[in-house]
């Protein structure tokens, strides 16, 4: 079993990753041209914010101080969404493509955390949350496929 400080560090990394996702979905909502897509992204952002709170509570329960910020990589990714959207002729598709990239990164972070020898309660939390990350990833991919098909028709 890894040291408690290492568990806290892993959880704090997941908090940053999740806050990146929360802000990423919010940024995607801002950049989407379609009202139903905006709503979709805002719902995903709210769902991820619940995950952030759960992770922060787990860090506190372990005696640690949870982070309350996004990562530099997440900030740069959101700026890339802004730039790509501004240059793209199909805003919705560009936003979905970049959002899917962000969800790929979140999935990788959660999978990496699960490779560690974590306490059972922490592992259970991360396993439950990774299912939400997978669901978000699959929903974004599904929406991207819909918008790609619509763009091909027009």
From TrEMBL:
Ranges of residues in domain DUF2383 = 6-116
What is the species listed in this Swiss-Prot or TrEMBL entry?
Methylophilus luteus
Under the heading NCBIfam families, the entry gives: PA2169 family four-helix-bundle protein
Pfam family of the protein (one): DUF2383
Alphabetized InterPro entries for the sequence: CHP02284 (IPR011971), DUF2383 (IPR019052), Ferritin-like (IPR012347), Ferritin-like_SF (IPR009078), UCP029477 (IPR016920)
Provide the protein name: PA2169 family four-helix-bundle protein
């Amino acid at each position: 079993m890894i040291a408690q400080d290492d568990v806290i560090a892993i959880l704090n990394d997941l908090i940053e990753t999740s806050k990146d996702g929360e802000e990423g979905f919010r940024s995607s909502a801002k950049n989407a041209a379609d009202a139903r897509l905006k709503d979709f992204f805002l719902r995903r952002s709210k769902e991820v914010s619940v995950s952030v709170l759960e992770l922060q509570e787990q860090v506190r329960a372990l005696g640690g101080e949870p982070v309350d910020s996004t990562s530099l990589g997440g900030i740069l990714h959101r700026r890339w969404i802004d730039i790509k959207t501004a240059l793209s002729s199909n805003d919705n598709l560009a936003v979905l493509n970049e959002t899917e990239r962000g969800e790929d990164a979140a999935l990788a972070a959660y999978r990496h955390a699960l490779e560690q020898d974590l306490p059972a309660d922490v592992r259970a939390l991360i396993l439950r949350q990774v299912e939400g990350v997978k669901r978000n990833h699959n929903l974004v991919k599904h929406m991207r496929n819909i918008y790609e098909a619509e763009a091909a028709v027009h």
